[in-house]
Amino acid sequence: MDSSVIAPVTVVAMLVIRTALVEIRQPGSGRREWSFLSNRCAMAAGCATASLVSVGGWQAAGFAATAWAVLAGALAAHIVDLRTGPAAVRGEDSNDAHR
Hints:
single chain; mainly alpha; 6 helices; 0% strand
């Protein structure tokens, strides 16, 4: 394995372990944490980010750019989902959302 791929793989592993530990303490939190995978707008933003990073970094880093691109795309999709997701995920009170 290329040494430049180790960093993004480590970050992804840490995110998965964090999700698992929080899921043990609060059942159902993992589903909320990874809900961006079912949000079309978030996935479109993530795919666009991954494509741009991959194309831009391919000449400089080769295959490692793909690993970084996937990580950047996932993080961008998660951020977009936080902005467009349901009020319960953002932490707003359901009564405030209807006013």
